[in-house]
Amino acid sequence: MNKKAIAAAVSVAALAATMAGCSGGADAASAGSNITNCTNKIVHADAPKVSVWAWYPNMATVVDNFNNSHTDVQVCWTVAGQGGPEYAKFQTAIQAGKGAPDVIMLEADQLTGFELQNALVDLSKYGAGDVKKNFSAGSWKDVSQGDSVYAIPVDGGPMGMIYRKDVLDKYGIKPPTTWAEYETAAQKVKDAGGPAFGDLGSNVPAALTALMAQKGAVPFTYDLADQKNISIHLDSQPAKDVLNYWAALVKKGLVATQDQFTTDYISGMIGGKYATYISAAWAPGYLTGSGVGKGNEKGTFAAAPLPQWDPSNPVSVNWGGSTFAVTSQAGDQKLAAEVAKGLYADDASLTDGWKTQTIFPLNQNVLKSDAFTNNAVDFFGGQTANKDIYIPAENAYKGFSYSPFSVYYYAQLQAETVKINAGKVSGDEAATELQGIMVNYAKSQGFTVN
């Protein structure tokens, strides 16, 4: 397969808004493999150094924890941008054959595209299996291809529903447990002159894809062992059902169409413009970082499980989450693998991450701990949301089959969502258009579509 075509397929230029639940992180020029240009302090100067690109907000603390506890290796950390900007720099380094770090933070949905370019190291030969027990089957599947493992999970985004207690109480509504109940509740609030019940932002295609998967859609089936073949089913009935459902909510005026992660959306959440926020476990950190829950609205938010299509057969899905991978340009791949396995894996760093709501950790040592399980979440007015909602959702998550061109796909789904929100296409029409676009694109990149 043409490597230039592959590079185009995974180019990040098309979209930089695949939020994964990790806020903060300034875009900065990267030192690449220059092990002398570090953002952090090197504690043991004589130890070999491993360069790392990562954007977690508390990364300075995480790196210091690692370096203070290791005399055999030191992390040299650089922020090369958050999400899209970092991926663009990594892609440039791949094409140049130099300039990549030893270890890189990647969102799980971006791994396959880089794996296809032989840009990531199979960590199974460097003891990845030693830490497999620390993670759920679903989160491990997201970083694996067959027996190969291309990254170590750190955080994830099991989905649930945040809601405003004041709004639901005002209209006598219990948190909906099914999508049918969600629509009924939305209609009741609208009829009473209340706020939008939710929001279909066009800039959250990863979330919409997760909701399609919840209904049973399998948008892509791809196996790295069979690189030239891919199955695409974006016009399956489950996918159409979900797009039709949200298109109908928009048409009836039951949900808003505001892009999320914007000032307007945040102010809307603060002001009670939306009754619910279909989101992931990292959302409280994102919202509190923007000021929500710290003013008059403090204590008005609560969490509930994600509404289901069939309550007798509940399905858990994931939105976002990041990993540490070793690049094929790493000077010492074995040593870099030790960093990937050990960075953000110690108790101090994981505790700092969840207590500051920077991440939702995937490490089972945390998920099974009393402190995390029974944590009374201040944002949710003391609710034990981890135990009641997010931990069960994470442990029930089965994993997802990502395509080698997630960024291009997200851009096309975003465009279709814009048309749905404008009333220009139905859910059926959007699914059909999306299927045709992605099949043609895959073929143009040298794939055989099954």
UniProtKB/TrEMBL annotation:
The keyword Signal applies. Keywords: Signal. Residues 1-28 form the signal peptide. InterPro entries: Bact_solute-bd_prot1, SBP. It comes from Arthrobacter gyeryongensis. This is Sugar ABC transporter substrate-binding protein. PROSITE patterns: PROKAR_LIPOPROTEIN. SUPFAM superfamilies: Periplasmic binding protein-like II. Transmembrane segments: none annotated.
